[in-house]
Design a protein that fits this description.
Layout: E1 4-11, E2 21-28, E3 33-38, H1 44-52, E4 59-64, E5 67-68, E6 76-79, H2 91-101, H3 106-119, H4 135-148, E7 153-157, H5 165-182, E8 185-189, H6 193-199, E9 202-207, E10 212-218, H7 221-226, H8 231-236, H9 238-252
Parallel strand pairs: 3-8, 3-9, 6-7, 7-8
Antiparallel strand pairs: 1-2, 1-4, 4-5, 9-10
Helix pairs in contact: 2-3, 2-4, 3-4
Bound molecules: adenosine-5'-triphosphate.
Adenosine-5'-triphosphate binds next to α1.
Family: Belongs to the ABC transporter superfamily.
GO molecular function, one term: ATP binding
Domain ABC transporter: 6-233
């Protein structure tokens, strides 16, 4: 699988006096779950949009398998916080729509859509209309739809941000299950410090003014879950609390009092 690489990427929006992001490098390969964290305005979404091909870097290079990223592509599926599903369609039809766009023949779509729905633990919900589903269930349909494109990379912008705490925790384990089953590389933006620690194989901490990397480090809690350890036991581990304190310090380091 190719690597998705941002190499010394700067983002400068038209009409702005300063760049939003300066010289950020991030490399995501198969099996990586890279999480971007940092204070508001540090450029997390801008970087995700560069990876998606929605924003062009002012300087530096964004590549996938060595080829420049110039536009969105089926190799990268993007899921936003409030992803628009078609409310008048059922969960299965929403996923099948994405399969149709991919050219999957009509007679294969329903079965494949059900497989994808069961991957996000929505077995049996295929016939439900979107308006009948909870926020967490809708987000699962959004993920199933993203996976319908069989992407090599999932780009997730605060995908769990609108969910209540309990649903959010459940969705974190769903994301980890998906990541280990689907063999994709993930780049995710979150405001949740615990969420970053639970999910990531690598956390990149950004600071604003203009956005730059202050720390980048590998974590192993998500892999422990993938290896069978219960999520609650992982969160109760003193190493988890220590990592949380360290990450919080890194995020707020240098912030004006
Ligand atoms: N389309 C745009 N045009 C002009 N400026 C923009 C645009 N999008 C973002 N910015 C600016 O770029 C900077 C980085 O924004 P970005 O949304 O990438 O940060 P973020 O870390 O994702 O923020 P948040 O955590 O608040 O979502 C901010 O100063 C923002 O105001």
């Amino acid at each position: 699988m190719p690597h998705l690489a941002l190499d010394k990427v700067s983002v400068h929006y038209d009409g702005q006096p300063e760049p939003a992001v300066e010289r950020v490098s991030i490399d995501i390969g198969k099996g990586d779950f890279v999480v971007l964290v940092g204070r508001s305005g540090c450029g997390k979404t801008s970087l995700l949009n560069v990876a998606a091909g929605l924003v062009e870097p002012a300087r530096g290079r964004a590549t996938i398998g060595g080829r420049p990223i110039t536009a969105p592509g089926p190799d990268r599926a993007v899921v936003f916080q409030n992803d628009a599903l078609f409310p008048w369609l059922t969960a299965r039809e929403n996923v099948a729509f994405a399969l149709r766009l991919r050219g999957v023949p009509a007679d294969k779509r329903a079965r494949r859509a059900d497989e994808l729905l069961s991957l996000v633990k929505l077995n049996g919900a295929g016939d439900k209309h979107i308006w009948e589903l909870s926020g967490g269930m809708r987000q699962r349909v959004g993920l199933a739809r993203a996976l319908a494109a069989e992407p090599e990379f999932l780009l997730l912008d605060e995908p769990l941000g609108a969910l209540d705490a309990l649903t959010r925790e459940r969705m974190q384990t769903t994301l980890l299950d998906l990541w280990s089953a689907a063999q994709v590389g993930v780049l995710m933006v979150t405001h949740g410090i615990e969420e970053a620690l639970v999910l990531a194989t690598r956390i990149v901490v950004l600071a604003p003014g203009p956005g730059h990397v202050v720390r980048s480090f590998d974590t192993h809690f998500g892999r422990r879950y993938a290896a069978g350890e219960p999520i609650r036991a992982i969160k109760a581990d003193p190493a988890f609390a220590a990592a949380r304190a360290e990450l919080t310090d890194a995020i707020f380091e240098g912030e004006a009092a």
